[in-house]
């Protein structure tokens, strides 16, 4: 049998949403099942890699054979990612909340007549951009995701440059596509060389395809 494609490689994947607390019982969240990110972690493991999955509170179970670090907030996710470096490649599939509540309350906020609370939001760190621009520990291959509802490829191209990553996996998450939370995905791979339109496939197949592309890229690089 052929040697596994990613044997000897260390691969990091982020997946799932983040939850940003308002108080001990309430939070702000992004919509993400974790299906695609977890499938990528599983596919990388199946290809022989050592895999670290940094997962937000996802709906899907932890994949087998993978080191899983659970994080709730964006700040915790960034810390877990930084602690996991160095890696050969990193895939940022998590749907990270862009903002957190500035002063989350230690106590449950009481509902008082005529006085809805005002939440002040502050920007969360961009985990993908932070790692893509990491001076010494930047992975050789940094892959981001772009979930868009319009002009999917154009926005993904901009995002690739703005975030400093190598590839963007772009998908159309308009409600009518059923991709959000569903099992099928239609993606476009945006690289420095151009755009590849991949056929619609299960999230598991998209994961295997991406992992194979990553293995080829890592194998082709001079070391
Ligand atoms: O800018 P946008 O959120 O659309 O970018 C999506 C990409 O950036 C995804 O790969 C996502 O995992 C990553 N991201 C991140 N940290 C953030 C926001 C997005 O890693 N705070």
From TrEMBL:
GO terms for molecular function: FMN binding; metal ion binding; phosphopantothenate--cysteine ligase activity; phosphopantothenoylcysteine decarboxylase activity. CTP binds at residues 98, 108, 125-128, 145, 159, 163. It catalyses: N-[(R)-4-phosphopantothenoyl]-L-cysteine + H(+) = (R)-4'-phosphopantetheine + CO2; (R)-4'-phosphopantothenate + L-cysteine + CTP = N-[(R)-4-phosphopantothenoyl]-L-cysteine + CMP + diphosphate + H(+). Its EC number is 4.1.1.36, 6.3.2.5. GO terms for biological process: coenzyme A biosynthetic process; pantothenate catabolic process. Pathway: Cofactor biosynthesis; coenzyme A biosynthesis; CoA from (R)-pantothenate: step 2/5; Cofactor biosynthesis; coenzyme A biosynthesis; CoA from (R)-pantothenate: step 3/5. The chain holds residues 183 to 405 of 405 of the full protein. Residues 6-215 form the DNA/pantothenate metabolism flavoprotein C-terminal domain. Its cofactor is Mg(2+); FMN. Residues 11-223 are annotated as: Phosphopantothenate--cysteine ligase. Keywords: Decarboxylase, Flavoprotein, FMN, Ligase, Lyase, Magnesium, Metal-binding, Multifunctional enzyme. It comes from the Bacteria. Catalyzes two sequential steps in the biosynthesis of coenzyme A. In the first step cysteine is conjugated to 4'-phosphopantothenate to form 4-phosphopantothenoylcysteine. In the second step the latter compound is decarboxylated to form 4'-phosphopantotheine. This is Coenzyme A biosynthesis bifunctional protein CoaBC. In the N-terminal section; belongs to the HFCD (homo-oligomeric flavin containing Cys decarboxylase) superfamily. The gene is coaBC. Binds 1 FMN per subunit. One of its GO terms (cellular component) is phosphopantothenoylcysteine decarboxylase complex.
């Amino acid at each position: 049998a052929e040697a596994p494609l990613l044997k000897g490689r260390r691969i990091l994947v982020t997946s799932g949403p983040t939850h940003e607390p308002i108080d001990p019982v309430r939070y702000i969240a992004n919509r993400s099942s974790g299906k695609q990110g977890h499938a990528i972690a599983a596919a990388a493991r199946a290809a022989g890699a050592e895999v670290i999955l940094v997962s937000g509170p996802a709906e899907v179970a932890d994949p087998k054979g993978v080191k899983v670090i659970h994080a709730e907030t964006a700040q915790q996710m960034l810390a877990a990612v930084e602690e996991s470096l160095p890696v050969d490649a990193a895939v940022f599939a998590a749907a990270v909340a862009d903002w957190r509540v500035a002063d989350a309350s230690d106590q449950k906020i009481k509902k008082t007549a005529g006085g809805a609370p005002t939440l002040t939001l502050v920007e969360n760190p961009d985990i993908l951009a932070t790692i893509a621009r990491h001076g010494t520990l930047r992975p050789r291959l940094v892959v981001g995701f772009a979930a868009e509802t319009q002009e999917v490829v154009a926005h993904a191209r901009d995002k690739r440059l703005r975030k400093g990553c190598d590839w963007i996996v772009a998908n159309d998450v308009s409600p009518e596509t059923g991709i959000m939370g569903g099992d099928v995905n239609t993606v476009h791979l945006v690289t420095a060389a151009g755009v590849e339109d991949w056929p619609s496939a299960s999230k598991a197949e998209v994961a295997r395809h991406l992992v194979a592309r990553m293995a080829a890229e890592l194998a082709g690089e001079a070391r």
